[in-house]
TrEMBL record:
PROSITE patterns: HTH_ARSR_2
Pfam family name, one: HTH_5
Descriptive protein name: Transcriptional regulator
GO molecular function, one term: DNA binding
Species whose genome carries this gene: Candidatus Protofrankia californiensis
Length: 112
């Protein structure tokens, strides 16, 4: 049972990050391997500006970190356990039910 406010806030922050399909795709891509923004934008088929906004949100949520590599910046999951958590969460959701759509699926928001 979660009793600490900080536990609830952390889970809510993670949930808000996952509430956007692009951020989900980013987290899943970074689960596979660290990447540079230009590669992520190409992989996801979105503009670099849009990608930058989503990466900023994920950084603010504490889920990804920016690692300077020379003159470039590489992004990776803040902790390898996040990759395992994503795998476990995906497996649990698929095991429960796959033919449901969340009522609030159309709402967008950031991690604030």
């Amino acid at each position: 049972m979660l009793t600490l406010v900080s536990d609830v806030e952390m889970l809510a922050r993670f949930g808000r990050a996952l509430a956007d399909p692009i951020r989900c795709r980013l987290l899943l891509a970074l689960r596979e391997a660290p990447a540079h923004p230009s590669d992520l934008a190409d992989q996801l088929g979105i503009s670099r500006t849009r990608l930058s906004n989503h990466l900023a949100c994920l950084r603010d949520c504490g889920l990804v970190v920016a690692v300077p590599v020379g003159r470039r910046t590489r992004y990776e999951l803040a902790d390898p356990r996040l990759g395992h958590a994503l795998d476990d969460l995906r497996a649990a959701v698929v095991a429960v039910e796959t033919d449901r759509t969340c009522v609030d699926a159309e709402e967008k928001g950031c991690c604030q």
